[in-house]
Amino acid sequence: MATTLKTPENSAETDAADQPAEVRFRMRIMKGETIAIGPGKVSLLEAVRKHGSISAAARSLDMSYRRAWLLIDEINRSLKSPATISEQGGQSGGGCVLTPVGESIVKLYRDVEAQAQNACADQIESLTQLLKP
Amino acid sequence: MATTLKTPENSAETDAADQPAEVRFRMRIMKGETIAIGPGKVSLLEAVRKHGSISAAARSLDMSYRRAWLLIDEINRSLKSPATISEQGGQSGGGCVLTPVGESIVKLYRDVEAQAQNACADQIESLTQLLKP
């Protein structure tokens, strides 16, 4: 099948006109108008896990520290138990790590993307067959 | 399960703070930088089917005629065989109907959304359980 799952590892963009079709699944869990869990917040949690602080995670995503902090705050406010723990060091200086809840969110979310694509492989193949090569 | 699939039929927005979590699945099939098949284009095809012309479809989606026409043109250029047929009547006056290919795209796309949500029901339930009620 000429489709691949879009993940942070293979998301390099090229502008070749005849590259194969690429499938992106995105799930959002909404609470009212707010995206409680969605691709942006999960990518931010992964960046926090990788870089060990909100400021470094924000830089890695080309996002302002303020926006990253507000998103993390929004995630944690929406959860029964927080997804991150900030270590001492002041508002922008301290480290930040994922809690077990944060780890679960990342794992469940990425499982959903992969499993959705597997479950819909036949329809995705039918759709891509309708496209010009 | 306190989650419902977001569809055009039940997408009325409210700002009640304690409404149940709502799950939205969105698939995009990319060709390079272009979304060949995605939620916006599928909603536009559905509106064309319902309203019988690009201009009426555009109005129903609060979209300019020009933008709707360009999106339909982009869809048809990306396909081996077009998704719509425009009837006589000039650039903005004529009717527009879906071809069997257009009908297939709508059906396959909506099947993907429903099937993805069914396949991932366990993970979605686990994620929503982490949210405050």
Automatic annotation (TrEMBL), chains A, B:
InterPro entries: Molybdate_resp_trans_reg (IPR051815), WH-like_DNA-bd_sf (IPR036388), WH_DNA-bd_sf (IPR036390). PANTHER family: DNA-BINDING TRANSCRIPTIONAL DUAL REGULATOR MODE, TRANSCRIPTIONAL REGULATOR MODE. Signal peptide: none annotated. It comes from the Bacteria. This is ModE family transcriptional regulator.
